[in-house]
Design a protein that fits this description.
Elements lengths: L2 H18 L10 H13 L10 E9 L1 H4 L15 E9 H6 L2 H15 L2 H14 L10 E7 L48 E7 L6 E6 L4 H11 L3
Parallel strand pairs: 1-3, 3-4
Antiparallel strand pairs: 1-2, 4-5
Family: Belongs to the plant acyltransferase family.
Protein name: LysR family regulatory protein
GO molecular function, one term: acyltransferase activity
Length: 232
């Protein structure tokens, strides 16, 4: 997603979110919320606008801040994942016919409602009691988004390994030794990762946001057409 395009999209979405909530200053959509909504709409383009099929937009959610203190003390290192998923449950019709701000706010609301310490503990209690539960219905479709922006992959500094400059500083789009492309891929055996997307992060050269996903063959072509015509 080009930086200028995403900036414009985020501004438009937030103007709509604020207007929809009577100017409440607490109502907003982060860049991640906007990207998630954008991905969800693109990934279900194969469905008709009239479809009432349940779509669960699941965003990977880091629990470290909620568990800080007693579970994850600041003076100790926890090396491992501390993540769960927050779920925005909508219909395909809602996602495809409403403005993008509708889905972006649903994602933000899911984070607000499900990201508290109390809610996290309640979900873990359910998992302990009955295994890993699925929320939704038997005919639902899931869109999974994992945003890696905080990992700052594009800020990795390999300048110490540069033997010879390939271009002068004026011609170089990014800083010396910084990645120009990071490929995120998923290898899975026995578990379908279809409709799963990874947001790799913002590149150093132009500030563009890179994302990918696992989709049915042919759907990326439709997505490319939608982006070309701005008909997402």
């Amino acid at each position: 997603m080009p930086a200028a395009y995403l900036k414009k999209l985020k501004l438009s979405v937030n103007q709509e979110v604020v207007a929809q909530h009577a100017g409440k200053g607490t109502a907003f959509a982060s860049e991640g919320d906007v990207v998630s909504a954008f991905i969800a709409r693109l990934f279900i383009r194969h469905l008709p606008n009239t479809s009432n099929q349940t779509i669960v937009v699941m965003n990977a959610f880091g629990m470290r801040s909620a568990l800080a203190g007693d579970c994850l003390p600041s003076d100790r290192a926890y090396v491992g994942n501390a993540v769960t998923g927050v779920l925005a449950i909508l219909s395909a019709k809602e996602i495809l016919t409403n403005p993008l701000s509708y889905t972006a706010w649903a994602v933000r609301k899911a984070i607000i409602d499900q990201g508290s310490r109390e809610q996290l503990e309640a979900r873990v209690a359910v998992q302990k009691a009955m295994g890993f539960p699925l929320y939704g219905d038997g005919g639902m479709q899931m869109v999974t988004v994992s945003n890696w922006s905080k990992a700052k992959f594009f800020e990795a500094d390999f300048s110490a390994a540069v033997i010879q400059n390939g271009a002068n500083s004026n011609a170089r789009p990014g800083r010396l030794g910084k990645p120009s492309f990071v490929m995120g891929d998923t290898i899975s055996k026995g578990l379908s990762v279809r409709n799963a997307s990874n947001v790799v992060g913002r590149d150093d050269a132009d500030g563009d946001v890179w994302l990918g996903g696992v989709l049915r063959k042919g759907l990326w072509t439709k997505i490319a057409e939608a982006l070309e015509t701005d008909s997402y």
